[in-house]
Amino acid sequence: MAEKILVIDEGTTSTRAMLFAAGGKCLASRSAELTQHYPGPGLVEHDASEIWRRSLQCAHAMVLEAGGADQIAAIGITNQRETIVFWDKATGEPLAPAIVWQDRRSAPLCRKLREAGEEPGVQARTGLLLDPYFSGTKIAWAMEHWPQLKGAGDRLAIGTIESWLVWKLTGGLHITDATNASRTLLMGLGSGGWSDGLLDMFHAPREALPEIVDCAGKFGTTKLFGGEIPICGMAGDQQSATIGQACLERGETKATYGTGAFVLTNAGTIPPSSKHRLLSTVLWQLNGRRTYALEGSVFVAGSLVQWLRDSIRLIETAGETEALARSVPDNGGVYLVPALSGLGAPWWEPDARASLSGLTFSATRAHIVRAALEAMAHQSHDLKTAFAADGADWARLRVDGGMVTNDWIAQDLADILALPVDRPDFAETTALGAAMLAGVGCGMFAGLEEAAKMRGAGLTFEPKLDADARAARLAGWDRAVASIVTPRV
Ligand code: ADP
Q: In the structure, which protein residues have their CB atom closer than 6 angstroms to any atom of ligand 1?
């Protein structure tokens, strides 16, 4: 009987396919790099055909590994969010490059709309802010600058990456899941449907958009692997990781520390509204009912370690930071505020620049590296404060991502947040979340609670730092941040 789950995890720099057993064991995986196109300053594009080709190759390898399509109960898809694809419904071929979430080309439009006073209304309807990050202003830009899109008339299809992959897998099904739709600026957060006012604002033709569906269900089947396999799960990557971390109850929180850091707290079934510039987003939609999340992101996390390694050459490998941090008893008064590309939530200071402060002759390489790692806990603490002020404080934190393979960082998070920090043994929580959704969608599990048994064991880091030392660290950080951000009135 088919009881394996195939996950396609389509990321920004690579795409992967993974094969899971129903119990949660990862049986195999295959990944392929994706070409990044940088046609100009601030512009980032992908070739949607390449994304499809590479995802298909990886998926094929997993079907072979499984012993054929009849061994696979369901496919789950998780993807880089906000990236937007334009294609021709008649040919199934892209009409233009995919505009990637990192792309800043719509910054002038965002500024114009903000100056016109549109942000509060957009935030109230979508839970998002007017930032080029989200798909809506990318669509508006593309409709204005790429004549072939309007020229395609009713053959134009627009969708985020999971929508594009489902179209290709099924040969023409045009759907998107509510988590991905909630990142477009086009969906009403409360209604779960495309909003006419927002479609007008961003010049998005309704007929070009996919139907918004649940995150789990029998959406369609693919016949591309030598048999029929149903597609049963879909969610954007951060939502999928939150599900993979089994944050199923209100208040449960996960933080992923990769290149940047993303924190999502399950906010329950009423759309949260943030007063501290956090994002409100759909965490999942099942049986037409939505569960929401509050989201905060830190722009610079692991990229700080990469910068220390590649630009400053203070270290040779990311891994050596752990021993260096341990080699000194404390930071020696050194603080590093890593605003290398501005400060994200809750500061939102795009023009802030990084600082290294508190240096004396006794400061060593180890102190600077330690200050860099400590910045993760400090930035997380700032986020925790914003979440708490929005009524969504954390009781413990579930962590994943490349940085928290570093035990010192995991312990420092526990110490500074004064919370238990849980790290699962199986780190691929994004793929796991998509597998859980697919398992629910194909009926293998009755619901997410049952699917959560796929998560497996982990390690908990308990807070150990004494209160005075913690207060001193936080005060030092606050002073360091205050010296680079504009004081708030
Ligand atoms: P992404 O998914 O964003 O590519 P990953 O979750 O793979 O990122 O994490 C990679 C990041 O983690 C890199 O930026 C790297 O510098 C950092 N990193 C990896 N190992 C360590 C470590 N032991 N200590 C500190 N940082 C690390």
A: 258-259, 302-303, 305-306, 318-319, 321-322, 401-403, 405-406
Write out the two tokens for 488: 């708030």
**Percent helix, strand and coil across the chain, each rounded to 5?**
40, 25, 35
* Main-chain phi, psi angles of 301, to 5 degrees: -130, -95
Distance 262 CA to ligand 1 centre (A): 13
Instruction: Give the phi and the psi of residue 242 in degrees, each rounded to 5.
Output: -65, -40
3-state secondary structure of 489: coil
Answer for the pair 96, 30: CB distance below 8 angstroms, yes or no: no
Residue whose Cα lies nearest atom 27 of ligand 1: it is 403
Query: How is residue 79 written in tokens?
Result: 């993807």
Q: Which atom of ligand 1 is nearest to the CA of 259?
A: 3
Look at the pTM and tell me if it is higher than 0.90. Answer: yes
Instruction: Please name the residues in contact with 57: beta carbons below 8 A apart, sequence gap of 6 or more.
Output: 30, 32
Kindly write down the DSSP assignment for every residue of 354-389, as one continuous string.
-EEE---TT--HHHHHHHHHHHHHHHHHHHHHHHHH
H-only helix segments in 127-284: 135-145, 147-151, 161-170, 178-181, 196-201, 237-244
For 249-287, the pLDDT digits (tens) are: 999 999 999 888 999 999 999 999 998 889 999 999 999
Give the HSE-up count for residue 269: Cα atoms under 13 Å, Cβ half-sphere: 5
Nearest of 409, 358, 342 to residue 380 by alpha carbon: 409
CATH tag, 4-238: 3.30.420.40
* pLDDT per position as a tens digit, 431-450: 999 999 999 999 999 999 99
Q: State pLDDT tens for residues 472-484.
A: 999 999 999 999 8
The number of the ligand 1 atom at minimal distance from the alpha carbon of 256 is 6
For residue 52, give the H/E element and its range. Answer: helix 48-66
pLDDT at 160: 97
Q: Give the separation between CA 136 and CA 283, rounded to whole angstroms.
A: 19
Task: State whether residue 275 is helix, strand or coil.
Answer: coil
> Beta-carbon neighbour count of residue 427 at 10 Å?
18
Q: How would residue 139 be classed by pLDDT, with cut points 50, 70 and 90?
A: very high
Query: Which ligand 1 atom is nearest residue 301's CA?
Result: 14
pLDDT in tens, 288-304: 999 999 999 888 899 89
Query: What 3-state DSSP class applies to 420?
Result: coil
Instruction: Answer yes or no: are the C-beta atoms of 160 and 47 closer than 8 Å.
Output: no
Q: Per residue, what are the HEC states of 149-180?
A: HHHCHHHEEEEEHHHHHHHHHHCCCCEEEHHH
